[in-house]
Automatic annotation (TrEMBL):
<dbReference type="Pfam" id="PF00543">
    <property type="entry name" value="P-II"/>
</dbReference>
<dbReference type="InterPro" id="IPR017918">
    <property type="entry name" value="N-reg_PII_CS"/>
</dbReference>
<dbReference type="InterPro" id="IPR011322">
    <property type="entry name" value="N-reg_PII-like_a/b"/>
</dbReference>
<dbReference type="InterPro" id="IPR015867">
    <property type="entry name" value="N-reg_PII/ATP_PRibTrfase_C"/>
</dbReference>
<dbReference type="GO" id="GO:0005524">
    <property type="term" value="F:ATP binding"/>
</dbReference>
<protein>
    <submittedName>
        <fullName>P-II family nitrogen regulator</fullName>
    </submittedName>
</protein>
<dbReference type="GO" id="GO:0030234">
    <property type="term" value="F:enzyme regulator activity"/>
</dbReference>
<dbReference type="GO" id="GO:0006808">
    <property type="term" value="P:regulation of nitrogen utilization"/>
</dbReference>
<comment type="similarity">
    <text>Belongs to the P(II) protein family.</text>
</comment>
<dbReference type="InterPro" id="IPR002187">
    <property type="entry name" value="N-reg_PII"/>
</dbReference>
<dbReference type="GO" id="GO:0005829">
    <property type="term" value="C:cytosol"/>
</dbReference>
Length: 112
């Protein structure tokens, strides 16, 4: 099992969510987050003073899926969340040791 954590532009959330639903993804967690990437030290200029642009609003989508689903889900993000410009976001993939459905006590694949 793998966890896919994707940080995307808020305005891309709807098309991504629809594409994930189309793909049969049922369980996911969504958070409103703020972050910075490579452009963190870019300077802005406002009313005579410079300031550092630090945090940009993003949406974080977390999904735990079986390992064989990872590639097709990554493809969905690459297709739907891209504007081909800086700040499009990032995808992190990590191993998941265990999943437990609280209601039934089911574990592993059955609990996803
Ligand atoms: N290394 C990282 N670790 C954790 N979160 C990150 C990391 N890089 C980016 N993020 C998150 O992803 C969001 C979008 O990052 P962004 O797309 O700007 O990455 P980037 O590396 O600067 O790529 P680009 O040059 O395309 O902008 C950030 O606001 C932050 O929330
Ligand atoms: Mg960036």
């Amino acid at each position: 099992m793998k966890k896919i954590e994707a940080i995307i532009r808020p305005e891309k959330f709807k098309v991504v969510r629809d594409a994930l639903a189309q793909h049969g993804i049922s369980g996911l967690t969504v958070s409103e987050v703020a972050g910075c990437g490579n452009q963190k030290s870019k300077k802005g200029f406002f009313r005579g003073t410079t300031f550092e642009i630090q945090l940009v609003p993003k949406i974080k989508i977390e999904m735990v899926v079986s390992a064989d689903q990872v590639d097709s889900i990554v493809d969905i993000f690459l297709k739907e969340a891209s504007t081909d410009t800086i700040g499009d976001g990032k995808i992190f993939i990590s191993p998941v040791e265990e999943v437990i459905r609280i209601r039934s006590g089911e574990r592993g694949q059955e609990a996803i």
